[in-house]
Specification:
Largest sheet: 2 strands, antiparallel
Pfam families: Ion_trans_2
Protein name: Ion channel
Structural class: mainly alpha
Strand order of the largest sheet: 1-2
Number of strands: 2
Number of helices: 10
Keywords: Ion channel, Ion transport, Membrane, Transmembrane, Transmembrane helix, Transport
Radius of gyration: 23 Å
Subcellular location: Membrane
InterPro entries: K_chnl_dom, VG_K_chnl
Helix content: 55-70%
Number of domains: 3
Shape: flat
Strand content: under 5%
């Protein structure tokens, strides 16, 4: 075996060990892995807070440096998650990963993707696709609140995505009533709630069509939120016999097939 072959095998072994370590950190249940996942979650939440405030901070002196620093963090996270995955190509095809890659592009090239910067708030939605986000709720026996919390987050993300779109598309064109980010947020909330004070409107046919879409989707999200809050709470516990995903917290038998269930109580779930 020549020196080049040995060097290639050594390099392959180092990559395999790195991937194994990252897989343990991102998906393991050891105390060290849980601390790492909690730290990543806190960083993600801080980044999302910056994304929400970015329209108001865009003119700040150090905004671009913060933007690029966050891009570096997201790049490291994406590369690490790719190495931690067993099937990289399958991982790349997942919608949350595609959204994260697009968000990274808006950070790395803000001049090119400025008009799509409002989509960065979708990072909050991709975060809720991770089991790490929900682990604190499961530990405290709050699994039955997962659906209402997800509905609130979906509505929250929708509000800020639409606000960013309205602000980007209609502010400063001299034809409408949107003169700042707060105006866009105010218009979005009044439209979604169908309050419609009429003091701020979007001009032209495109503005009317935009308002119609906002109202239709907003009402649907409000109905979804009301259903999640007021209908009987259920826990996520797949039936081993028929696969029914949700049951009442105190269910003894599956209501679909009658199979005996063993649902953990709130202290263990």
């Amino acid at each position: 075996m020549d020196a080049k072959t040995r060097a290639e095998e050594a390099e392959s072994g180092r990559v395999a060990r790195l991937r194994s370590q990252l897989r343990v950190l991102y998906h393991g249940q050891s105390p060290a892995a849980l601390r790492f996942q909690s730290a990543v979650l806190l960083v993600d939440l801080a980044i999302i807070g910056f994304f929400i405030a970015s329209p108001l901070l865009r003119d700040a002196k150090h905004f671009l440096w913060i933007d690029l620093s966050i891009a570096a963090l997201l790049t490291l996270d994406l590369v690490a998650r790719a190495l931690a995955s067993k099937h990289v190509l399958r991982w790349l095809r997942q919608l949350p990963v595609i959204i994260d890659i697009f968000i990274l592009a808006t950070l790395l090239a803000p001049a090119w993707f400025f008009n799509f910067g409002f989509l960065r708030i979708l990072r909050l939605w991709t975060l809720t696709r991770s089991s790490v986000f929900w682990r604190p709720f499961l530990k405290r026996g709050l699994a039955i609140y997962r659906e209402p919390i997800q509905a609130v987050i979906n509505l929250f993300v929708f509000l800020f995505v639409v606000t960013g779109f309205v602000y980007t598309a209609f502010a400063g064109n001299g034809r409408g009533d949107i003169h700042g980010y707060v105006d866009a947020l105010y218009f979005t909330v009044t439209t979604v709630t169908t309050t419609g004070f009429g003091d701020i409107i979007l001009p032209g046919t495109f503005g009317k069509l935009t308002s119609i879409v906002i109202m239709i989707i907003g009402i649907s999200l409000f109905v979804r939120l009301a259903q999640a809050i007021f209908r009987p709470a259920k826990v996520h516990f797949p039936c081993p016999e028929c696969g029914l995903q949700k049951h009442e917290p105190d269910a003894v038998h599956c209501k679909a097939c009658g199979h005996l269930l063993n649902i953990p109580d709130s202290g263990n779930h």
